[in-house]
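PROTEIN DESIGN WORKSHEET
SECTION A - STRUCTURE
LENGTH: 898
TOKENS:
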């Protein structure tokens, strides 16, 4: 007991922590074989050894007569992933004084992994040491005799790709039998023992409570996979993998599994040809570009050879009707072949000249090397074409009548070979608005808002996707898009549970966090696999923020007050409403603000979801006042059109998609999404409008005759989407005739939604700006303008883009896109943060929020203060000889396209 003066604070002092006991044990052990443990004890006394998993397996007290090593043996009788061995050493308290009863103590613990030998399968591989490209790789697998169904998968992957991330050969054993945390709580009370003689022996033991569980490509990668291959009872299988054009080393990786065991193995296979070809092409081209194609040839055949190299170009096969002659995408401007002699091990570079002629599409360049002795090698390079003029998408809605409709007059003005047309026959009254879905799911950037916006409508309008974007036609593709969206969204979750605006952001953005969480809740409800723990973390984050008391000046950057109403709606949607706080917000709301109607609707809906029906009448009668073009470029991404689409979607969630009271609002939203190209709208306006309208037409029915589309007199096959029919026609504008026939359109209205994408005749990039100004300069190492007459292969070019906000307001969520000419590659995109280039002023460099690098462009995202001017400076190098088109640079406010 301890005494303190009257009035003083009474407390029991915290005992000293135990000293560490050095415990030696093997890293791994086998079931049924003894584990030798040794503890180094500093003083005489006693030591308690234990073996534990999620329960106590064995304990033993051993008397320690003198300091030094103490040995203990434990034999595991059954399998566990790992066993924890602990030692608690107690010093004899009477060594210092006969009156002392509190001993010094020490503690140590080691985890010993048990080998899952009973569950491991031996895998033997039989592979060749070397194969040629464009051949078949045969992989033999031997598992030994099997008694039941057994399966293997075989993968062959470029070792260079695996080396980038130091990727190990997959071994299922550590994943199936991971190291487990100790499931037993270890306690000792000796350190708290009072200075009184004990009445008798005492001890403490662990419990058995379970621990908490934890939480057209120009360069083609070689990654071959066999899929599941069943092995017969002999345990042997032979798998063939087609090796493409490639040189290097492949790692062959095999995994095997049956009902009781798993196994894996790997082997290296070299891919090499006697004549090695390396062709260098730009990563993309623009019509009119002229360039050289260097071909590097090496003779590894073992003797001197006379080698002939030939070059040919072809267009990719045009999908569709196949009645038009293909157009050559590349025109050779030099010889098409070269012959020369190479000794064994010798190399030579030959160059060919070419010119890009296709305005859009892709080309395949085929290089063939042949020599005496019948040797040959082939190299194929694919390169996409970027248009020199802007691509446009024109959507038209035509009300159909009984009989035939000539479509040719509706398809004028397209540059040959660039256009493709999608036709959708449907009674859907919102079809024109829903066609914006294609723009949404292909939006080029990837912040949390845009990633969520691309995935959200797919939960509700998946059956309409093939009608508006035929390249995303199968349910499996759509499911993959949703799953990819979920994974990318979760990758932006911060440690506190919220979501950063860009990948890598450490600070969460409030509105975007509510938006992402709302989607994850809906995706889980739709049957997608969403980790519940991650959703719980997000809800907990929103709850903590909603419970805080704030002044209006706080959290301006991430916009708490723009997000507060939506946060409360999402919390109620998750079953965690804050009714008192919502009531207070409704009572003090400033209803003069344009955003207030949306916020009021969300707060009333939050109460409704929480069981409070006071505002049901108001919720059933959403705002149908005429739309305005007002937008606020803040962190809530508000616009009048977005607000109406969101309210319509929430209304349908509360009262069903067939509620007639919402039809006026649905028509208002549909009109708002009509008459303009998709680029004119924000992603928020499209996602909420498309989601809400898609819900309303999901269960509609109609009857009409089978539509027949004929091209040049030949019928084209239709894709059936329930009652709807769709057709995809490539280069429809070049047909001599295109006619749609619907004998009977039925009792209701029937529409043709026709969407054409391509390059318009005489199209040019529009220059100028509204509220933003932009200039671009190409400079040399001294900061002077480039002398193009002296610009040579290998030279560095410094690009300086100057952006200026000409308004008196802050503009955020800006996207700057600077496209490169085909002969350049970006070398250093982050100039200005050091003194490596003297003429760069670091104070003028734009401190952007996020940056993306692509083969053909640089993308930056950030904000500009009122009247602010900033610079973006990066270095590129000329890597291909030729003459190339310089594309434009552009900047836009993503949530205020005006």
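SECTION B - SEQUENCE
RESIDUE ASSIGNMENT:
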């Amino acid at each position: 007991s301890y005494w303190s003066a009257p009035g003083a604070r009474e407390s029991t002092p915290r005992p000293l922590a135990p000293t560490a006991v050095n415990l030696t044990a093997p890293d791994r052990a086998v079931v049924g074989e003894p584990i030798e443990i040794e503890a180094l004890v500093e003083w005489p006394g006693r030591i308690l050894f234990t073996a534990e998993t999620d329960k106590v397996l064995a304990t033993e007290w051993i008397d320690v007569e003198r300091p030094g090593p103490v040995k203990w043996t434990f034999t595991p009788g059954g399998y566990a992933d790992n066993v924890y061995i602990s030692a608690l050493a107690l010093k004899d308290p009477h060594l210092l004084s006969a009156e002392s009863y509190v001993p010094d103590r020490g503690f140590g613990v080691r985890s010993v992994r048990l080998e899952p030998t009973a569950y491991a399968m031996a895998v033997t591989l039989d592979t060749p040491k070397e194969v040629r490209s464009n051949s078949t790789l045969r992989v033999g697998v031997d598992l030994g005799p099997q008694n039941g169904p057994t399966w293997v998968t075989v993968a062959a992957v470029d070792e260079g790709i695996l080396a980038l991330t130091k990727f190990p050969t997959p071994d299922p054993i550590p994943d199936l039998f991971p190291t487990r945390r100790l499931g037993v709580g270890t306690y000792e009370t000796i350190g708290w023992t009072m200075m009184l003689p004990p009445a008798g022996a005492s001890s403490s033991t662990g419990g058995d409570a379970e621990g908490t569980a934890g939480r057209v490509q120009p360069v083609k990668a070689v990654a071959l996979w066999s899929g599941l291959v069943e092995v017969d009872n002999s345990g042997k299988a032979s798998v063939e993998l087609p090796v493409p054009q490639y040189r290097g080393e492949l790692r062959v990786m095999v995994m095997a599994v049956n009902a009781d065991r798993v196994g894996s193995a790997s082997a290296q296979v070299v891919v090499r040809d006697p004549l090695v070809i390396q062709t260098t092409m730009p990563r993309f081209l623009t019509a009119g570009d002229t360039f050289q194609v260097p071909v590097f040839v090496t003779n590894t055949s073992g003797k001197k050879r006379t080698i002939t190299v030939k070059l040919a170009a072809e267009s990719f096969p045009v999908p569709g009707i196949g009645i038009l002659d293909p157009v050559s995408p590349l025109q050779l401007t030099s010889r098409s072949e070269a012959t020369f002699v190479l000794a064994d091990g010798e190399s030579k570079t030959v160059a060919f000249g070419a010119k890009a002629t296709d305005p859009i599409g892709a080309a395949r360049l085929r290089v063939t090397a042949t020599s005496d002795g019948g040797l040959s090698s082939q190299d194929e390079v694919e390169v996409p074409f970027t248009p020199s003029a802007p691509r446009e998408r024109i959507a038209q809605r035509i009300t159909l009548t009984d009989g035939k409709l000539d479509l040719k007059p509706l398809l004028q003005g397209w540059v040959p070979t660039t256009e493709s047309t999608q036709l959708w026959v449907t009674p859907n009254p919102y079809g024109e608005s829903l066609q914006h879905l294609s723009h949404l799911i292909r939006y080029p950037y990837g912040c949390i808002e845009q990633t969520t916006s691309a995935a959200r409508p797919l939960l509700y309008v998946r059956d309409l996707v093939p009608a508006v974007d035929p390249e995303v036609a199968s349910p499996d593709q759509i499911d993959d898009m949703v799953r990819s969206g979920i994974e990318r969204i979760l990758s932006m979750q911060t440690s506190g549970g919220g979501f950063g605006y860009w990948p890598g952001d450490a600070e969460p953005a409030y509105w975007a966090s509510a938006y992402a969480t709302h989607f994850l809740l809906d995706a889980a409800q739709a049957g997608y696999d969403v980790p519940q723990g991650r959703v719980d973390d997000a809800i907990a984050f929103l709850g903590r923020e909603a419970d805080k008391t704030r002044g209006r000046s706080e959290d301006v950057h991430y916009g708490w007050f723009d997000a507060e109403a939506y946060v409360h709606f999402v919390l109620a949607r998750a079953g965690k409403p804050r009714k008192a706080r919502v009531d207070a917000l409704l009572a003090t709301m400033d209803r003069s603000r344009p955003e207030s109607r949306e916020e009021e609707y969300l707060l009333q809906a939050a109460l409704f979801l929480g069981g409070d029906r006071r505002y049901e009448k108001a919720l059933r009668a959403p705002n149908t006042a005429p739309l305005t073009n007002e937008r606020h470029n803040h962190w809530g991404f508000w616009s009048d059109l977005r607000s109406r689409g969101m309210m319509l979607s929430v209304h349908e969630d509360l009262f069903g998609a067939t509620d007639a009271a919402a039809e006026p609002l649905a028509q208002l939203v549909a009109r708002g999404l009509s008459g303009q190209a998709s680029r004119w709208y924000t992603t928020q306006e499209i996602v909420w409008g498309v989601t809400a309208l898609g819900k309303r037409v999901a269960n509609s029915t109609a009857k009409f005759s089978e539509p027949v589309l004929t091209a040049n007199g030949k019928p084209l096959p239709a894709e059936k989407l329930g009652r709807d029919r769709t057709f995809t026609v490539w280069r429809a504008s070049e047909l001599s005739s295109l006619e749609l026939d619907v004998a009977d359109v039925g009792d209701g209205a029937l529409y043709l939604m026709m969407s054409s994408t391509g390059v318009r005749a005489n199209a040019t990039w529009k220059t100028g700006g509204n509220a933003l100004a932009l200039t671009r300069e190409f400079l040399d190492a001294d900061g002077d303008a480039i002398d193009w007459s002296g610009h040579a292969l290998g030279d560095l070019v410094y690009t300086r883009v100057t952006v200026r906000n000409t308004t008196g307001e802050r503009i955020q969520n800006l996207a700057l896109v600077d496209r490169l000419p085909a002969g350049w590659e970006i070398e250093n995109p982050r100039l200005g943060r050091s003194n490596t280039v003297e003429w760069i002023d670091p104070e003028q460099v734009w401190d952007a929020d996020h940056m993306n690098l692509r083969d053909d462009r640089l993308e930056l995202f950030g904000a500009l203060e009122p009247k602010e001017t900033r610079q973006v400076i990066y270095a590129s190098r000329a890597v291909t000889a030729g003459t190339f088109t310089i594309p434009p640079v552009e900047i836009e406010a993503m949530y205020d396209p005006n």
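SECTION C - NOTES
The chain has six domains: 19-115, 118-180+214-271, 275-385, 395-427+700-763, 428-696, 772-893.
Residues 1-12, 193-215, 318-323 have pLDDT under 50 and may be disordered.
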